[in-house]
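Quick one: structure tokens for this chain, please?
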Amino acid sequence: MINLFQPQVGDEELDAVAGVFQDRWLGHGPRTKAFEAAFAEHLGVGPEHVVFINSGTAGLFLAMESLALEAGDEVVLPSLSFLAAANAVVTTAARPVFCDVDRRTLNPTLEDVERVLTERTKAVVVLHYGGYPGDTVRIADHCRERGITLIEDAACSVASRVHGRAVGTLGDLAMWSFDAMKVLVTGDGGMIYVKDPQQAARVRRLAYHGLAQPSGFGYAKVSARWWELEVPEPGRRVIGNDLTAAIGAVQLRRLPELVGRRRQIVAQYDRELADVPGLLTPPALPAGHESTHYFYWVQMDPQIRDDVAGDLYRAGIYTTFRYAPLHKVAAYGSPDITLPGSDWAADRTLCLPLHPGLSDTDVRTVATALRRAVAARTAAATAGAPAA
């Protein structure tokens, strides 16, 4: 099976893990701090602004907790988002409000966000679909003018930039995911960025039980009674550790190589699929935008999309659609709203395999199978009969 995602780990990562074993310190420690510092440098910010955590989802929950949301508050987010963002909102007193997206980029525009802003809006969450930065600069400027917190779900965008500036640093808070399906992988893990230094220090406390200072071995150097606790407010334990940080540090060094191969695969897909009747490929990036190329998505007639996915699966090619529209999920209490861009994209979009482990032959195999499936299913739909 040609998979949608596949982590790229090898001897360098194994050697890094072996070093952790040799040092006999697997928990939160010096490698965690070093990884935070290296990632902060990658972003172009100070290390005090980032915290290595155990998942990008934990970052979304920490972000919401740090805002002290109250009953009646609203958080705007695109309907085509991972469900973790909606879960993070509904576990607070606030209400998620879903906005539409551009049907081709699957990212919200400023106009999409503006349509649902009210005087109760406390925060806006944007997802950079497939690594495309989207309209985040304009959205960030507008949120800043209105005093609304902007949270960037940068899970897909570890190497995305706008005019040289790292995606994730355009708003007030951001988080990245390093799970086994992402571009930079640590097995499980994530990073959260907080622009305001005081809020960043608070998020760091919340990520480790709410403790004002560590109470263990390290604190013994500076306190005669290091076991005593100071907890300004309760938190949870979602910090990263040296084992996953060691893997992450290697992956971060390899990031240009990993993203470079993704860029080559995207270019090959673009060439192979450029002239397929009835098939749309991702739009070109605007000038000054750089993508991590996490997804490669195609769009086609909704009458054939599901059948095409089934044909590819039977041919040994796994595809899917990410992300299912959240405004249709009853658990989030969404009113009966119409989001035409989201609905249009959800009915027509399919994500193709994209990871550095794909060979040129693999990409050609996917493209050839897709061309054939689209042609066969289109012909069958036109004739009014199922394809053989």
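The chain has a mean pLDDT of 95.
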